[in-house]
Amino acid sequence: MNIFRLLGDFSHLGAIIILLLKIWKTRSCAGVSGKSVLLYAIVFTCRYLDLFTHFVSLYNSVMKIIYLVSTYFTLFLIYRKFKATYDRNHDTFRIEFLILPSAVLALLWNHEYSVLEILWTFSIYLESVAVLPQLFMVSKTGEAETITSHYLFALGIYRFLYILNWIYRYYTENFIDWISVVAGVVQTVLYCDFFYLYITKVLKGKKLSLPA
Amino acid sequence: VTVRIEHDEL
Protein backbone atom coordinates (compact mmCIF):
# COMPACT_ATOMS: atom_id res chain seq x y z
CA MET A 1 0.00 0.00 0.00
CA ASN A 2 1.26 3.45 -0.87
CA ILE A 3 -0.17 6.94 -0.60
CA PHE A 4 -1.35 7.11 -4.24
CA ARG A 5 -3.31 3.89 -3.97
CA LEU A 6 -4.80 4.88 -0.62
CA LEU A 7 -5.88 8.28 -1.97
CA GLY A 8 -7.21 6.57 -5.09
CA ASP A 9 -9.26 4.08 -3.09
CA PHE A 10 -10.71 6.83 -0.91
CA SER A 11 -11.54 9.11 -3.83
CA HIS A 12 -13.30 6.14 -5.45
CA LEU A 13 -15.15 5.53 -2.19
CA GLY A 14 -15.88 9.26 -1.99
CA ALA A 15 -17.42 9.23 -5.48
CA ILE A 16 -19.73 6.35 -4.59
CA ILE A 17 -20.78 7.99 -1.30
CA ILE A 18 -21.30 11.46 -2.88
CA LEU A 19 -23.63 9.93 -5.45
CA LEU A 20 -25.51 7.89 -2.88
CA LEU A 21 -25.96 10.85 -0.50
CA LYS A 22 -26.96 13.22 -3.30
CA ILE A 23 -29.76 10.87 -4.38
CA TRP A 24 -30.78 10.10 -0.82
CA LYS A 25 -30.84 13.73 0.43
CA THR A 26 -32.57 15.23 -2.62
CA ARG A 27 -34.86 12.20 -3.02
CA SER A 28 -34.02 12.48 -6.72
CA CYS A 29 -31.66 10.94 -9.24
CA ALA A 30 -32.16 13.60 -11.92
CA GLY A 31 -29.05 14.01 -14.05
CA VAL A 32 -27.59 10.69 -12.91
CA SER A 33 -26.98 7.95 -15.45
CA GLY A 34 -28.47 4.72 -14.11
CA LYS A 35 -26.68 2.94 -16.96
CA SER A 36 -23.24 4.02 -15.70
CA VAL A 37 -24.13 2.86 -12.18
CA LEU A 38 -25.37 -0.43 -13.63
CA LEU A 39 -22.05 -0.86 -15.45
CA TYR A 40 -20.14 -0.21 -12.19
CA ALA A 41 -22.28 -2.83 -10.46
CA ILE A 42 -21.31 -5.32 -13.21
CA VAL A 43 -17.65 -4.26 -12.91
CA PHE A 44 -17.52 -4.78 -9.13
CA THR A 45 -19.42 -8.05 -9.31
CA CYS A 46 -17.09 -9.56 -11.91
CA ARG A 47 -13.92 -8.26 -10.28
CA TYR A 48 -14.68 -9.02 -6.65
CA LEU A 49 -15.69 -12.66 -7.09
CA ASP A 50 -12.24 -13.30 -5.65
CA LEU A 51 -13.69 -12.34 -2.25
CA PHE A 52 -14.63 -16.01 -2.09
CA THR A 53 -11.37 -17.45 -3.36
CA HIS A 54 -8.49 -15.17 -2.47
CA PHE A 55 -7.87 -13.21 0.72
CA VAL A 56 -5.59 -10.17 0.37
CA SER A 57 -6.17 -8.19 3.55
CA LEU A 58 -8.99 -7.09 5.82
CA TYR A 59 -8.78 -3.60 4.28
CA ASN A 60 -9.09 -5.07 0.79
CA SER A 61 -12.10 -7.25 1.63
CA VAL A 62 -13.94 -4.54 3.57
CA MET A 63 -13.49 -1.98 0.76
CA LYS A 64 -14.71 -4.49 -1.85
CA ILE A 65 -17.82 -5.20 0.21
CA ILE A 66 -18.50 -1.46 0.74
CA TYR A 67 -18.10 -0.75 -3.01
CA LEU A 68 -20.45 -3.61 -3.89
CA VAL A 69 -23.14 -2.89 -1.32
CA SER A 70 -23.22 0.88 -1.88
CA THR A 71 -23.29 0.52 -5.67
CA TYR A 72 -26.17 -1.98 -5.55
CA PHE A 73 -28.01 0.26 -3.11
CA THR A 74 -27.56 3.24 -5.47
CA LEU A 75 -28.90 1.09 -8.28
CA PHE A 76 -31.94 0.26 -6.14
CA LEU A 77 -32.52 3.97 -5.45
CA ILE A 78 -32.36 4.85 -9.15
CA TYR A 79 -34.40 2.00 -10.61
CA ARG A 80 -36.85 1.39 -7.75
CA LYS A 81 -37.19 3.86 -4.90
CA PHE A 82 -36.78 7.12 -6.84
CA LYS A 83 -37.45 5.81 -10.32
CA ALA A 84 -40.03 8.56 -10.97
CA THR A 85 -37.15 11.08 -10.91
CA TYR A 86 -34.88 9.03 -13.18
CA ASP A 87 -34.15 10.91 -16.37
CA ARG A 88 -34.41 7.91 -18.69
CA ASN A 89 -35.05 9.99 -21.80
CA HIS A 90 -31.57 11.46 -21.50
CA ASP A 91 -29.89 8.19 -20.45
CA THR A 92 -29.89 6.64 -23.88
CA PHE A 93 -26.34 5.39 -24.34
CA ARG A 94 -26.33 1.85 -25.76
CA ILE A 95 -24.38 -0.06 -23.12
CA GLU A 96 -24.15 -3.21 -25.22
CA PHE A 97 -21.62 -1.26 -27.32
CA LEU A 98 -19.42 -1.14 -24.22
CA ILE A 99 -20.16 -4.58 -22.74
CA LEU A 100 -19.66 -6.67 -25.89
CA PRO A 101 -16.30 -5.20 -27.01
CA SER A 102 -15.01 -5.41 -23.41
CA ALA A 103 -16.02 -9.09 -23.29
CA VAL A 104 -14.38 -9.84 -26.63
CA LEU A 105 -11.20 -8.00 -25.66
CA ALA A 106 -11.09 -9.86 -22.32
CA LEU A 107 -11.19 -13.16 -24.22
CA LEU A 108 -8.39 -12.01 -26.53
CA TRP A 109 -6.04 -10.25 -24.10
CA ASN A 110 -5.81 -11.63 -20.56
CA HIS A 111 -3.20 -12.96 -18.15
CA GLU A 112 -4.62 -16.45 -17.97
CA TYR A 113 -7.40 -18.38 -19.66
CA SER A 114 -9.57 -19.12 -16.65
CA VAL A 115 -13.10 -18.04 -15.76
CA LEU A 116 -12.17 -15.81 -12.81
CA GLU A 117 -9.26 -14.25 -14.65
CA ILE A 118 -11.33 -13.47 -17.75
CA LEU A 119 -14.08 -11.95 -15.62
CA TRP A 120 -11.46 -9.85 -13.81
CA THR A 121 -10.04 -8.68 -17.15
CA PHE A 122 -13.53 -7.94 -18.49
CA SER A 123 -14.20 -5.80 -15.41
CA ILE A 124 -11.01 -3.81 -15.98
CA TYR A 125 -11.92 -3.09 -19.63
CA LEU A 126 -15.54 -2.34 -18.84
CA GLU A 127 -14.62 0.01 -16.01
CA SER A 128 -12.42 2.05 -18.33
CA VAL A 129 -15.47 3.02 -20.42
CA ALA A 130 -18.28 2.74 -17.83
CA VAL A 131 -18.44 6.51 -17.34
CA LEU A 132 -19.42 7.11 -20.98
CA PRO A 133 -23.22 6.88 -20.42
CA GLN A 134 -22.87 9.52 -17.67
CA LEU A 135 -20.67 11.80 -19.79
CA PHE A 136 -23.05 11.29 -22.71
CA MET A 137 -25.95 12.34 -20.50
CA VAL A 138 -24.12 15.50 -19.39
CA SER A 139 -23.34 16.36 -23.00
CA LYS A 140 -26.95 15.73 -24.02
CA THR A 141 -28.44 18.00 -21.37
CA GLY A 142 -25.51 20.43 -21.73
CA GLU A 143 -25.01 20.79 -17.98
CA ALA A 144 -24.48 19.01 -14.70
CA GLU A 145 -25.37 19.91 -11.17
CA THR A 146 -22.34 20.91 -9.10
CA ILE A 147 -22.64 17.87 -6.84
CA THR A 148 -22.76 15.61 -9.92
CA SER A 149 -19.57 17.31 -11.10
CA HIS A 150 -17.87 16.55 -7.77
CA TYR A 151 -18.99 12.93 -8.10
CA LEU A 152 -17.54 12.71 -11.61
CA PHE A 153 -14.29 14.37 -10.56
CA ALA A 154 -13.75 11.95 -7.65
CA LEU A 155 -14.59 9.03 -9.94
CA GLY A 156 -12.12 10.22 -12.58
CA ILE A 157 -9.21 11.26 -10.38
CA TYR A 158 -9.18 7.84 -8.68
CA ARG A 159 -7.77 6.07 -11.73
CA PHE A 160 -5.26 8.84 -12.29
CA LEU A 161 -4.03 8.28 -8.70
CA TYR A 162 -3.82 4.58 -9.50
CA ILE A 163 -1.55 5.37 -12.46
CA LEU A 164 0.81 7.15 -10.05
CA ASN A 165 0.55 4.04 -7.83
CA TRP A 166 1.52 1.79 -10.75
CA ILE A 167 4.54 3.97 -11.58
CA TYR A 168 5.53 3.86 -7.91
CA ARG A 169 5.10 0.09 -7.74
CA TYR A 170 7.10 -0.36 -10.93
CA TYR A 171 10.10 1.35 -9.34
CA THR A 172 9.76 0.01 -5.79
CA GLU A 173 8.42 -3.53 -6.31
CA ASN A 174 9.29 -4.11 -9.96
CA PHE A 175 5.60 -4.81 -10.39
CA ILE A 176 3.64 -4.01 -13.53
CA ASP A 177 0.28 -5.19 -14.81
CA TRP A 178 -0.08 -3.95 -18.37
CA ILE A 179 -3.78 -4.72 -18.62
CA SER A 180 -4.55 -2.44 -15.68
CA VAL A 181 -2.14 0.24 -16.86
CA VAL A 182 -3.43 0.48 -20.44
CA ALA A 183 -7.10 0.39 -19.35
CA GLY A 184 -6.37 2.89 -16.57
CA VAL A 185 -4.76 5.32 -19.01
CA VAL A 186 -7.73 5.02 -21.39
CA GLN A 187 -10.09 5.58 -18.46
CA THR A 188 -8.23 8.70 -17.35
CA VAL A 189 -7.96 10.11 -20.88
CA LEU A 190 -11.75 9.90 -21.26
CA TYR A 191 -12.03 12.36 -18.37
CA CYS A 192 -9.61 14.97 -19.73
CA ASP A 193 -12.28 17.15 -21.27
CA PHE A 194 -14.35 16.93 -18.09
CA PHE A 195 -11.33 17.68 -15.86
CA TYR A 196 -10.69 20.82 -17.89
CA LEU A 197 -14.28 22.03 -17.47
CA TYR A 198 -14.27 21.08 -13.79
CA ILE A 199 -11.11 23.05 -13.03
CA THR A 200 -12.01 26.09 -15.14
CA LYS A 201 -15.68 26.28 -14.11
CA VAL A 202 -16.81 24.25 -11.11
CA LEU A 203 -13.83 25.11 -8.90
CA LYS A 204 -14.48 28.78 -9.65
CA GLY A 205 -18.00 28.44 -8.33
CA LYS A 206 -19.76 28.18 -11.66
CA LYS A 207 -22.12 25.47 -12.74
CA LEU A 208 -20.77 23.00 -15.25
CA SER A 209 -22.38 23.89 -18.55
CA LEU A 210 -21.13 23.02 -21.98
CA PRO A 211 -20.65 25.60 -24.69
CA ALA A 212 -23.63 25.48 -27.06
CA VAL B 1 10.12 -7.22 -14.35
CA THR B 2 7.80 -9.72 -12.73
CA VAL B 3 4.35 -9.86 -14.19
CA ARG B 4 2.14 -11.21 -11.44
CA ILE B 5 -1.51 -12.01 -11.79
CA GLU B 6 -2.12 -11.75 -8.11
CA HIS B 7 -4.75 -9.03 -7.94
CA ASP B 8 -4.17 -7.17 -4.72
CA GLU B 9 -5.68 -3.84 -5.81
CA LEU B 10 -9.28 -2.69 -5.81
TrEMBL record, chain A:
Which cellular component, as a GO term, is one annotated location? endoplasmic reticulum membrane
Question: What GO MF annotations does this protein's record show?
Answer: ER retention sequence binding
Any GO BP annotation = protein transport
**Keywords (A to Z) from UniProt:** Endoplasmic reticulum, ER-Golgi transport, Membrane, Protein transport, Receptor, Transmembrane, Transmembrane helix, Transport
What is stated as this protein's family in its record? Answer: Belongs to the ERD2 family.
Return the PANTHER family for the record. Answer: ER LUMEN PROTEIN RETAINING RECEPTOR
Q: What protein name does the entry list?
A: ER lumen protein-retaining receptor
Lineage of origin: Eukaryota, Metazoa, Spiralia, Gnathifera, Rotifera
